């Protein structure tokens, strides 16, 4: 063997092997912090993989625009956004039975994995208010969000039709089970936007999910639309005087999905399997009150390690919350996205 061959083989053997890197895309803030502690760090310890976390706005269009260029691998998505992304070929198709046993597949609730996504947690879009703003009677129902006479002051709302259209109809007395059917009609959309007109001058818009709790804390708004875990985090950790109104809560499902352009599909699948074990889901729910999507995880949820609260009581589907509840209709959202956005932006433009 020539000396040059010996040197080449020696260099290959001694060269360090580059660690595989996985890019996970999430929502930032307290939500991402809980994911890092409960899911990502244990996976890194177990596998030795390098994990990079990117933040996005939750839309399938962000995946289309940024995913390939930024090397996205695993994405935390709303179920309806994943459905649209899957239909557009933006997600890697998975075979659930190759990732989970039959017993594990039956453990998922309210629905199981599909060809592009695996359910991971249940959240609620809720109304919250600044307790300091109302010295006497407090808001208790979604209708109070639209009552600027009894409860005056700015309302913080996401710059999106999501959730607020359902609430507009609830405030008009439409039963929860009829909301999505009515919003599928021209009459229903007119009724919802007419209700929004009644608070148009009191709206302050937000884009980042961390903003509504911050707006309540610093006085920019007296009521806000947001996610239950974000309000909980600011109220408990920062001792902000924020109260949640559970009436009208809209429960939705977050899923894990894999970008079609990933160059580490096996590592991405391994992460999703790890992230959706009952133990991982329970650790996550123990840190931020988003419910697990596997039945066997519920009994594992204990006290928050930082603030000592029993977290099962704060989950969005905890029975003591009472009031009306809607389950976000992912099919309706996936099928009406263009219509909703067009009508919403037309309504915004009408004010200018």
From TrEMBL:
InterPro entries: SBP
Keywords per UniProt: Signal
Superkingdom per UniProt: Bacteria
Keyword Transmembrane helix attached: no
Coiled-coil stretches noted in the UniProt entry, renumbered to this chain: none
PANTHER family (alphabetical): ABC TRANSPORTER SUBSTRATE-BINDING PROTEIN, SPERMIDINE/PUTRESCINE-BINDING PERIPLASMIC PROTEIN
Protein name: Putative spermidine/putrescine transport system substrate-binding protein
Species, as recorded: Roseovarius tolerans
Lineage: Bacteria, Pseudomonadati, Pseudomonadota, Alphaproteobacteria, Rhodobacterales
